[in-house]
């Protein structure tokens, strides 16, 4: 059986430049607006395809070096292509942020947007890393998403996936058990609550301030959402479906999103917090 285009997209996390317009792109200017004046060295954690680094390089001529740390080799390759023109002002490192290695930089700005939930339950390691690396007076600007969760710890994208699995034949009540059996930790559990995160942060970083916005995702078609899901979540959730239903799974996710859009006027909405953090 050959894989469908959307399954291949999920494996390689392709199409993110387009997909991220639905949600993640809004974090970029929000965060860059709060960088210290005349930043010299920026490290972006989970830098994806390099969009935040590019925006920062364009906006801040003072930036001598913009460093990306990212796990996916596909995304590093896309970032390298995007940032080629900036030459020695860019350094990209393949890195696992749950086991971050020392870098020979003392950044006055560290950023991390739409990434932290992937590091659960080891977020503390990147907080300790940031505290060790920040230059005196430097800022760590972090965005975190906080979907409402049910008694099983499911919420946000988990809800859309639940609708899709039900459409493919799973009983609604069986979905939390299916997550557990497949070892898929619900995203609404990974994202933690604000209070829980504040507790994890506290030993390493001080909160100098925060902002909040509501991330509302709307969609024009089922296909658009299936692509957003594949580019954002890859094959994280699709392993919940049996192999012969994988292509159908992405279609069902798109269809579940389209139905929510029709019924609610949006697919999802959730508070996003921008934390302004400093080393103690
Ligand atoms: C939703 S994307 C966000 C990308 C970018 N920061 C943005 O705001 O558009 C999450 C990124 O985190 C990366 N990531 C997830 N887990 C990681 C880990 N353990 N170490 C490094 N990068 C990771 C993914 O590969 C992906 O590029």
Any overview of this molecule?
The protein is of the alpha/beta class. The chain is built from 12 helices and 7 strands. Helix 1 (5-12) runs parallel beside helix 11 and helix 11 packs across helix 12 (246-264). The mean pLDDT is 94. The site of S-adenosylmethionine has 21 residues, from loops.
What layout of secondary structure does this protein have?
Blueprint: H1 5-12, H2 16-19, H3 26-32, E1 41-45, H4 51-59, E2 65-70, H5 73-83, E3 90-94, E4 109-112, H6 123-133, E5 139-145, H7 157-167, H8 175-182, H9 187-190, H10 194-201, E6 205-217, H11 222-233, H12 246-264, E7 268-279
Parallel strand pairs: 1-2, 1-4, 2-3, 4-5
Antiparallel strand pairs: 5-7, 6-7
Helix pairs in contact: 1-11, 7-12, 11-12
Quickly give the structural class: alpha/beta
Radius of gyration: 19 Å
Mean pLDDT: 94
The percent range for strand residues is 15-25%
Q: What can be said about the biggest beta sheet?
A: 7 strands, mixed
Q: Residue share in helices? A: 40-55%
Count up the helices. 12
Oligomer: single chain
Ligand catalogue: S-adenosylmethionine
Q: Could you list the spans in which at least 5 consecutive residues all have pLDDT below 50?
A: none
Shape: globular
Spatial strand sequence of the major β-sheet: 3-2-1-4-5-7-6
Number of strands: 7
Query: What string gives the helices and strands in order?
Result: HHHEHEHEEHEHHHHEHHE
First CA to last CA: what distance? 55 Å
């Amino acid at each position: 059986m050959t894989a469908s285009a959307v399954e291949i997209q999920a494996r390689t996390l392709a199409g993110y430049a387009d997909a991220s317009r639905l949600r993640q792109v809004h974090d970029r200017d929000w965060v860059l607006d709060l960088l210290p004046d005349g930043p010299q060295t920026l490290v972006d954690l989970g830098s994806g395809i390099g969009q935040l680094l590019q925006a920062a390089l364009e906006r801040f001529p003072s930036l001598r070096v913009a460093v990306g740390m990212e796990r996916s080799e596909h995304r590093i390759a896309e970032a390298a292509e995007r940032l080629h023109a900036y030459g020695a002002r860019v350094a990209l490192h393949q890195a696992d942020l749950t086991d971050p290695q020392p870098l020979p930089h003392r950044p006055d700005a560290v950023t991390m947007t739409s990434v932290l939930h992937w590091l659960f339950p080891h977020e503390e390691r990147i907080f300790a890393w940031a505290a060790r690396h920040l230059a005196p007076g430097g800022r760590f600007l972090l965005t975190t998403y906080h979907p409402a969760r049910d008694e099983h710890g499911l919420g946000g994208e988990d809800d859309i996936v639940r609708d899709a699995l039900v459409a493919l034949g799973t009983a609604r009540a069986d979905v939390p058990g299916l997550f557990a059996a497949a070892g898929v930790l619900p995203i609404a559990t990974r994202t933690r609550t604000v209070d829980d995160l504040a507790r994890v942060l506290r030993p390493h970083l001080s909160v100098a301030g925060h902002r909040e916005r509501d991330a509302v995702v709307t969609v024009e078609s089922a296909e658009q959402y299936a692509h957003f899901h594949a580019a954002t979540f890859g094959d994280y959730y699709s392993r919940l479906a049996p192999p012969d239903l994988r292509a159908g799974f992405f279609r069902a996710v798109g269809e579940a999103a389209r139905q929510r859009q029709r019924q609610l006027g949006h697919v999802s909405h959730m508070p996003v917090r921008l934390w302004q953090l400093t080393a103690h």
